[in-house]
Amino acid sequence: MDEFELIARYFSRDGGAGVVLGVGDDGAVLELPADRRLVAVVDTLVDGVHYPAHFAAADVGYRAVAVNLSDIAAMGAEPAWMTLALTLPAVDTEWLAGFADGLYRAAGEHGVALVGGDTTRGAQTVISVQLLGHAAPAGVLTRSGCRPGDLLYVSGTLGEAAAGLESLQGGRDEVALEARFRRPVPRVALGRAVAGIAGAAIDVSDGLAADLGHVLAASGCGATLELERLPLSATLVAARGEERARALALTGGDDYELCLAVPAAAEEAFLAAARDCDTPVTRIGRARAEAGLVLTQNGEAVASPQGGYRHFAATGPQP
Ligand code: ADP
Ligand code: MG
Fold first, then answer.
1. pLDDT tens digits, one per residue of 130-166
2. Which residue puts its alpha carbon closest to atom 18 of ligand 1?
3. Of 49, 55, 81, 52, which Cα lies nearest the Cα of 68?
4. How far is the CA of 119 from the centre of ligand 2 (A)?
5. Residue 271 is inside which H or E element, if any?
6. How far is the CA of 45 from the centre of ligand 2 (A)?
7. I need a surface site. Which of 72, 220, 237, 277 has the fewest CB within 10 A?
8. How many angstroms is it from 34 CA to the middle of ligand 2?
C-alpha cells in the first residue's frame, strides 16, 4: 500500500463545520466563525516514550487527540479541526485501523474534523496532532492571569493516571486506574464554560505541582496549596493508600484535569458554570503575592517528600 492509498483508506472520512477544503489538496481551507480568534496547539507522541510499547492502537489514536483537546480546553477554546503528521516504520493495516478508530472517536466526541496531514516512513512511530480551535477575543484563558488572593481550583481527581501508568508498566492489572491513563478525559466543556470567569488555567499533564508552578511563574505570584484538599478518588486511595495517593496527585502526570485560578469575586459564577457542565471542581489553595509554592497540611506548613516536586524547585523556596 502506498502513502496515497493509506490516506484514502484510513484518514479521509467526511469533513465538518467550517471545512471549505479538507484532506486531498495541498492544504486545508477553513472558515472561522465571525469574531473568533484562532487557537492552535500541537502535541507529539513518540512510541515507547509517551505511551508503553504494547499500548493498544486505538488507545494511541485516542490519546493523540485527547492530549491536544486538553490544551485547547486549558485555553478556554472550542476545538474545531486537526491535522495529523504520522511517521511509521512499516504499514501495519491492523494497527492503522485501530489507530484511526481511536483517533476519530476522540475527535467525534468533540466535533473535530481531520482536515489534512503528512505521512512518512521513519525508524519509529511518531504521531503529531495539531488541533485548531477558536475563542472569543476576550475569553481566552492564559497562564499569566493569576493574581494574589485568587482561589485555586482543580477539576476531577488527581493521581490516578500516574498510578495507571505504573500498573501498565509493572503488569499490575489495575484496570480502572489504567483506563484513566489510556483514555484521558479532556475538560473541554469546563474550559469553555469558565473562559471569561477564571483568571488563569493550565491542564495538568506533568503533575499539579509542576503545572501550577508554570502558572505562578507566568503570573509573577506564589500560592499556598492545602494538601488535605487534593481530590483523590476512592479507587486510588484503596489501591495505593492515602499518603502515596496524595504524592501521586501532587507530582504524577497525565491526569489532564484543569487547574484554574479564580478571583474571589467570581467564585459563585465559576461554581455555577462548572455545575452547568457537570464537572466536579475542588478548591485546593489560594494565590499569594510572595513567590513560591507553600504546601500545608491541616494548617501546618509541610516539607516536600524526598524526591518529589523537583520540577517545582526552580520556581521558589521550599517551605
Ligand atoms: P503533498 O505532497 O502535497 O504535501 P501529501 O501527499 O503529503 O501532499 O498529502 C496528500 C493529502 O493528504 C493532503 O491533503 C494531506 O493534507 C493529506 N494527508 C496526508 N497524510 C495525512 C494523514 N496522515 N492524515 C490526514 N490527511 C493526510
Ligand atoms: Mg506532504
1. 999 999 999 999 999 999 999 999 999 999 999 999 9
2. 117
3. 81
4. 7
5. helix 267-276
6. 19
7. 220
8. 30
